[in-house]
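[AMINO ACID CHAIN]
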Amino acid sequence: MNSKNPNEDIIDYKHYDLKREMLNERYSYKNVKIKEMLEDILKNIKYDKDLNYLFDEKNKCYIERYLLFKIQYNLGSAFDCDKTLLAKKFCKNQKQGERDTVFSLQSIWGQIIKKEYSNECIEENEYNYFKNKYGYNKRNGKIRYKIDDAQKYIYELENIEYIKLLLGNELYNALNNYAHYYHTLGNMSECPSSKETDYNRKKGFYKVGYDRIDLFLECLKSDNWQCAVEDKNVREKILAWFYSENGSYSDNVKRNKLEILIDSNLGAIDINDKEKLIKYLNNVSELIQKRYDSLKELNNELI
Protein backbone atom coordinates (compact mmCIF):
# COMPACT_ATOMS: atom_id res chain seq x y z
CA MET A 1 0.00 0.00 0.00
CA ASN A 2 1.26 3.44 -0.90
CA SER A 3 1.69 5.38 2.36
CA LYS A 4 2.23 8.73 0.67
CA ASN A 5 -0.24 11.42 1.64
CA PRO A 6 -2.11 12.12 -1.62
CA ASN A 7 -2.15 15.84 -0.81
CA GLU A 8 1.49 16.03 0.26
CA ASP A 9 2.73 17.73 -2.92
CA ILE A 10 0.14 20.52 -2.73
CA ILE A 11 0.04 21.15 1.01
CA ASP A 12 -0.14 24.77 2.12
CA TYR A 13 2.56 24.24 4.75
CA LYS A 14 2.07 27.61 6.40
CA HIS A 15 -1.46 26.73 7.48
CA TYR A 16 -1.25 22.93 7.50
CA ASP A 17 -2.39 21.42 10.80
CA LEU A 18 -0.01 18.54 11.52
CA LYS A 19 -2.78 16.79 13.45
CA ARG A 20 -4.18 15.96 10.02
CA GLU A 21 -1.36 13.44 9.77
CA MET A 22 -3.31 11.25 12.18
CA LEU A 23 -5.40 10.36 9.12
CA ASN A 24 -2.35 9.35 7.12
CA GLU A 25 -2.15 5.59 6.68
CA ARG A 26 1.59 5.51 7.34
CA TYR A 27 0.94 5.99 11.07
CA SER A 28 -0.29 3.10 13.20
CA TYR A 29 -0.44 1.79 16.77
CA LYS A 30 -0.04 -1.93 17.42
CA ASN A 31 -0.84 -2.66 13.76
CA VAL A 32 -3.96 -0.48 13.91
CA LYS A 33 -4.01 2.70 11.85
CA ILE A 34 -4.23 5.85 13.96
CA LYS A 35 -7.24 6.84 11.86
CA GLU A 36 -9.01 3.63 12.90
CA MET A 37 -8.14 4.35 16.53
CA LEU A 38 -9.71 7.80 16.21
CA GLU A 39 -12.85 6.29 14.71
CA ASP A 40 -13.06 3.84 17.61
CA ILE A 41 -12.73 6.67 20.11
CA LEU A 42 -15.48 8.75 18.50
CA LYS A 43 -17.75 5.74 18.23
CA ASN A 44 -17.55 5.06 21.97
CA ILE A 45 -17.98 8.52 23.47
CA LYS A 46 -20.93 10.92 23.63
CA TYR A 47 -19.94 13.12 20.74
CA ASP A 48 -21.88 13.45 17.51
CA LYS A 49 -19.28 14.57 14.93
CA ASP A 50 -17.28 12.18 12.78
CA LEU A 51 -13.74 12.42 11.40
CA ASN A 52 -14.87 13.82 8.07
CA TYR A 53 -16.58 16.72 9.81
CA LEU A 54 -13.71 17.34 12.25
CA PHE A 55 -11.08 17.46 9.54
CA ASP A 56 -13.07 19.44 6.99
CA GLU A 57 -11.24 22.79 7.07
CA LYS A 58 -14.37 24.84 6.54
CA ASN A 59 -15.68 23.64 9.93
CA LYS A 60 -12.60 24.91 11.81
CA CYS A 61 -12.78 22.31 14.59
CA TYR A 62 -9.23 22.90 15.76
CA ILE A 63 -9.78 22.61 19.51
CA GLU A 64 -11.84 19.47 18.98
CA ARG A 65 -9.01 18.01 16.87
CA TYR A 66 -6.59 18.92 19.63
CA LEU A 67 -8.70 17.11 22.24
CA LEU A 68 -8.97 14.04 19.99
CA PHE A 69 -5.19 14.19 19.51
CA LYS A 70 -4.68 14.24 23.30
CA ILE A 71 -7.08 11.33 23.78
CA GLN A 72 -5.29 9.05 21.31
CA TYR A 73 -1.89 10.07 22.66
CA ASN A 74 -2.81 9.32 26.27
CA LEU A 75 -4.38 6.02 25.29
CA GLY A 76 -0.88 5.01 24.26
CA SER A 77 -0.57 5.52 20.49
CA ALA A 78 2.68 7.52 20.79
CA PHE A 79 1.66 9.51 17.70
CA ASP A 80 2.95 13.03 18.10
CA CYS A 81 3.14 15.85 15.59
CA ASP A 82 6.84 16.48 16.15
CA LYS A 83 7.56 12.90 15.08
CA THR A 84 5.70 13.08 11.76
CA LEU A 85 7.60 12.83 8.50
CA LEU A 86 6.80 16.47 7.73
CA ALA A 87 8.31 17.60 11.03
CA LYS A 88 11.39 15.46 10.39
CA LYS A 89 11.84 17.06 6.97
CA PHE A 90 11.36 20.48 8.50
CA CYS A 91 14.01 19.81 11.18
CA LYS A 92 16.05 17.57 8.92
CA ASN A 93 19.40 18.25 10.58
CA GLN A 94 18.25 16.96 13.95
CA LYS A 95 17.93 13.44 15.35
CA GLN A 96 14.55 12.00 16.27
CA GLY A 97 13.19 13.47 19.46
CA GLU A 98 15.13 16.71 19.09
CA ARG A 99 12.09 18.79 18.13
CA ASP A 100 9.58 20.77 20.09
CA THR A 101 6.53 22.96 19.68
CA VAL A 102 7.72 26.41 20.68
CA PHE A 103 4.45 27.72 22.11
CA SER A 104 2.14 25.46 24.09
CA LEU A 105 -1.63 25.05 23.99
CA GLN A 106 -1.93 22.45 26.74
CA SER A 107 -0.75 24.70 29.56
CA ILE A 108 -3.13 27.55 28.67
CA TRP A 109 -6.14 25.37 27.82
CA GLY A 110 -5.63 23.32 30.98
CA GLN A 111 -5.63 26.38 33.24
CA ILE A 112 -8.70 27.88 31.58
CA ILE A 113 -10.68 24.66 31.86
CA LYS A 114 -9.51 24.13 35.42
CA LYS A 115 -11.34 27.32 36.34
CA GLU A 116 -14.62 25.93 35.06
CA TYR A 117 -14.57 22.27 36.15
CA SER A 118 -13.65 20.57 39.40
CA ASN A 119 -14.42 17.10 38.06
CA GLU A 120 -13.79 15.72 34.58
CA CYS A 121 -14.83 12.08 34.87
CA ILE A 122 -16.60 10.29 32.04
CA GLU A 123 -19.45 7.83 32.50
CA GLU A 124 -18.68 4.39 33.88
CA ASN A 125 -19.51 2.43 30.71
CA GLU A 126 -17.20 4.67 28.67
CA TYR A 127 -14.44 4.39 31.24
CA ASN A 128 -14.67 0.59 31.35
CA TYR A 129 -14.60 0.28 27.54
CA PHE A 130 -11.34 2.22 27.22
CA LYS A 131 -9.89 0.63 30.35
CA ASN A 132 -10.41 -2.86 28.96
CA LYS A 133 -9.35 -2.05 25.40
CA TYR A 134 -6.25 0.06 25.97
CA GLY A 135 -4.95 -1.33 29.25
CA TYR A 136 -2.44 0.27 31.58
CA ASN A 137 1.11 1.42 32.12
CA LYS A 138 3.32 0.65 35.10
CA ARG A 139 4.82 3.68 36.77
CA ASN A 140 7.19 3.17 39.65
CA GLY A 141 5.78 -0.32 40.07
CA LYS A 142 2.19 0.94 40.21
CA ILE A 143 -0.52 0.29 37.63
CA ARG A 144 -2.17 3.32 36.03
CA TYR A 145 -4.84 2.78 33.41
CA LYS A 146 -4.34 4.83 30.26
CA ILE A 147 -7.92 6.03 30.36
CA ASP A 148 -7.13 7.79 33.65
CA ASP A 149 -4.97 10.25 31.71
CA ALA A 150 -7.24 10.40 28.66
CA GLN A 151 -10.63 10.82 30.27
CA LYS A 152 -10.39 14.56 31.02
CA TYR A 153 -9.95 15.22 27.30
CA ILE A 154 -12.90 12.95 26.47
CA TYR A 155 -15.02 14.87 28.98
CA GLU A 156 -13.99 18.18 27.43
CA LEU A 157 -14.72 16.96 23.90
CA GLU A 158 -18.14 15.67 24.96
CA ASN A 159 -18.90 19.04 26.58
CA ILE A 160 -17.31 21.31 23.99
CA GLU A 161 -20.54 23.17 23.17
CA TYR A 162 -21.03 24.05 26.83
CA ILE A 163 -17.39 25.15 27.07
CA LYS A 164 -17.95 27.45 24.08
CA LEU A 165 -20.84 29.10 25.91
CA LEU A 166 -18.81 29.51 29.10
CA LEU A 167 -15.84 31.08 27.34
CA GLY A 168 -17.78 33.25 24.91
CA ASN A 169 -17.30 33.53 21.18
CA GLU A 170 -14.34 35.92 21.15
CA LEU A 171 -12.15 33.93 23.57
CA TYR A 172 -13.13 30.57 22.12
CA ASN A 173 -12.41 31.74 18.57
CA ALA A 174 -8.99 33.04 19.63
CA LEU A 175 -8.24 29.71 21.32
CA ASN A 176 -9.49 27.81 18.28
CA ASN A 177 -7.25 29.81 15.95
CA TYR A 178 -4.32 29.29 18.33
CA ALA A 179 -5.08 25.54 18.36
CA HIS A 180 -4.78 25.61 14.57
CA TYR A 181 -1.34 27.25 14.43
CA TYR A 182 -0.04 25.45 17.52
CA HIS A 183 0.61 22.34 15.43
CA THR A 184 1.81 23.99 12.23
CA LEU A 185 5.42 24.00 11.07
CA GLY A 186 5.85 27.64 12.08
CA ASN A 187 5.61 26.52 15.72
CA MET A 188 7.98 23.57 15.26
CA SER A 189 11.67 23.87 16.02
CA GLU A 190 14.87 22.05 16.70
CA CYS A 191 15.71 22.15 20.40
CA PRO A 192 18.42 21.16 22.91
CA SER A 193 19.05 17.45 23.37
CA SER A 194 16.36 15.83 25.49
CA LYS A 195 18.80 13.09 26.49
CA GLU A 196 21.33 15.57 27.82
CA THR A 197 19.05 18.27 29.23
CA ASP A 198 15.47 16.93 29.41
CA TYR A 199 14.64 20.23 27.73
CA ASN A 200 11.09 19.50 26.55
CA ARG A 201 9.89 18.36 29.94
CA LYS A 202 11.66 21.11 31.88
CA LYS A 203 10.30 23.86 29.66
CA GLY A 204 6.86 22.30 29.95
CA PHE A 205 7.02 21.99 33.73
CA TYR A 206 8.21 25.54 34.28
CA LYS A 207 4.75 26.56 35.52
CA VAL A 208 5.32 30.31 35.65
CA GLY A 209 6.10 30.37 31.94
CA TYR A 210 3.16 28.39 30.55
CA ASP A 211 5.64 26.32 28.50
CA ARG A 212 6.95 29.45 26.76
CA ILE A 213 10.46 29.55 25.38
CA ASP A 214 11.00 33.28 26.03
CA LEU A 215 9.98 33.15 29.70
CA PHE A 216 11.85 29.88 30.23
CA LEU A 217 15.10 31.42 28.92
CA GLU A 218 14.51 34.59 30.90
CA CYS A 219 14.32 32.49 34.06
CA LEU A 220 17.48 30.51 33.17
CA LYS A 221 19.43 33.75 32.79
CA SER A 222 18.19 35.11 36.13
CA ASP A 223 19.30 34.49 39.70
CA ASN A 224 16.14 32.42 40.13
CA TRP A 225 17.13 29.87 37.49
CA GLN A 226 16.51 26.96 39.87
CA CYS A 227 12.77 27.60 39.46
CA ALA A 228 13.17 26.06 36.01
CA VAL A 229 16.03 23.55 36.36
CA GLU A 230 17.83 22.14 39.35
CA ASP A 231 21.18 21.17 37.83
CA LYS A 232 23.63 23.96 36.99
CA ASN A 233 25.24 21.89 34.22
CA VAL A 234 21.85 21.35 32.57
CA ARG A 235 21.19 25.07 32.78
CA GLU A 236 24.51 25.84 31.09
CA LYS A 237 23.92 23.28 28.33
CA ILE A 238 20.52 24.73 27.50
CA LEU A 239 21.83 28.30 27.49
CA ALA A 240 24.80 27.25 25.33
CA TRP A 241 22.35 25.93 22.73
CA PHE A 242 20.64 29.32 22.51
CA TYR A 243 23.53 31.73 23.09
CA SER A 244 27.15 32.08 22.00
CA GLU A 245 29.94 32.88 24.47
CA ASN A 246 29.57 36.64 23.92
CA GLY A 247 25.86 36.50 24.73
CA SER A 248 24.56 36.87 21.18
CA TYR A 249 22.19 34.34 19.67
CA SER A 250 23.74 31.06 18.58
CA ASP A 251 23.61 29.58 15.09
CA ASN A 252 20.89 27.26 16.41
CA VAL A 253 18.62 30.21 17.14
CA LYS A 254 19.41 31.95 13.85
CA ARG A 255 18.92 28.79 11.78
CA ASN A 256 15.52 28.24 13.39
CA LYS A 257 14.54 31.93 13.39
CA LEU A 258 13.71 31.62 17.07
CA GLU A 259 14.66 35.23 17.77
CA ILE A 260 11.31 36.20 16.24
CA LEU A 261 9.59 34.42 19.12
CA ILE A 262 12.12 35.02 21.91
CA ASP A 263 12.19 38.79 21.29
CA SER A 264 8.45 39.13 20.84
CA ASN A 265 7.84 40.97 24.14
CA LEU A 266 4.53 39.23 24.63
CA GLY A 267 4.54 39.78 28.36
CA ALA A 268 3.13 37.53 31.06
CA ILE A 269 -0.07 35.54 30.55
CA ASP A 270 -3.04 36.32 32.78
CA ILE A 271 -5.85 33.84 32.13
CA ASN A 272 -8.12 35.89 34.42
CA ASP A 273 -7.95 38.91 32.10
CA LYS A 274 -10.02 37.85 29.09
CA GLU A 275 -9.16 40.88 26.95
CA LYS A 276 -5.41 40.49 27.41
CA LEU A 277 -5.60 36.72 26.93
CA ILE A 278 -7.41 37.13 23.60
CA LYS A 279 -4.80 39.64 22.47
CA TYR A 280 -1.99 37.28 23.51
CA LEU A 281 -3.48 34.30 21.64
CA ASN A 282 -3.98 36.33 18.47
CA ASN A 283 -0.45 37.75 18.65
CA VAL A 284 1.09 34.29 19.03
CA SER A 285 -0.88 32.95 16.07
CA GLU A 286 0.48 35.82 13.96
CA LEU A 287 4.05 35.30 15.24
CA ILE A 288 3.97 31.62 14.29
CA GLN A 289 2.97 32.53 10.74
CA LYS A 290 5.61 35.26 10.61
CA ARG A 291 8.30 32.78 11.67
CA TYR A 292 7.22 30.36 8.97
CA ASP A 293 7.59 33.09 6.34
CA SER A 294 11.08 33.93 7.60
CA LEU A 295 12.16 30.30 7.54
CA LYS A 296 10.92 29.94 4.02
CA GLU A 297 12.89 33.01 2.94
CA LEU A 298 15.98 31.61 4.68
CA ASN A 299 15.80 28.27 2.90
CA ASN A 300 12.97 27.71 0.46
CA GLU A 301 13.98 24.06 0.05
CA LEU A 302 13.42 23.45 3.75
CA ILE A 303 9.65 23.52 3.46
About this structure: The chain is about 50% helix and 5% strand.
